[in-house]
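Worked example

This section walks through a single chain of length 277. The input is the sequence exactly as stored; nothing has been trimmed or padded.
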Amino acid sequence: MAGTTDAGPGRPRVHEPDVGVSAGRATGGALLFALPLFMTMEVWQLGLSIPRYRLALLVAATVVLVVFLSRLFGAGATGLRRRDYLADAGVALVMAALVAAVAMTVFGVVVPWTDWPGALSVVAFAALPAAVGASFARSQLGAGSRRSETEAYGTEVLLMAAGAVVLAANIAPTEEIVLLAATAGPLLSAVVVVLSLLLMHGFVYRVGFKGQEVEGGPLRAFLLLTTVGYAVALAVSAYLLWTFGRFDGVDASVALARSVVLAVPASLGAAAARLVL
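Given that input, the structure is written out below as tokens.
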């Protein structure tokens, strides 16, 4: 059963979810964020061919990101102790891996009992958005999130990185990024960058979403949030494309064009993260 925890003098007691509810939230979040990736053919192929060191770096980055989100949000008001937020992160990671493994097995993508190394590679490859989704659902889709209304600027930037990862990871492995970038010359790429900045700024400042930036005026929001958020989204896009082998054998201009294309959804994810997360 769920328990109650005293959050401190003068603060209400917080109802902590039981293990089943917590695991259920993590499962739902993992599916919500990562199901498109589970059903993408390029993921099945790249998961088997990705160099081991790139896969190891991706797994390490996933763990760091989920620990950060758990440290920031957690699943309850008492999770400020290290062992608590590490436990939160562990549950999110385990459930994400389990969801990815079950989904891939049910879809017939992997057969763990005959090729467990290949299955492990594909599951690890697909677990990034699933783990972020599981962490998000354990905290934000239930009671007890610890996040305050205002956060340090560095925290906001890291939140934008998390949002960029969620959307970009589902698209980066696809061939469409390569095809779209192949048709984009320098002028069109510049237009795409401007469009991405305008869309981001609309999310961050102009359209009236809950959680948008309201202090300091549009210029401050553009300089400190929109442009920095786009730079973060572009860096996340470049890292994911490199991980998935989309930069292998191409020159810098092609790599940049592909990053700019992927940065469109990544930048929207970065902007939305401030509103949702």
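What to look for: The chain has ten helices and two strands.
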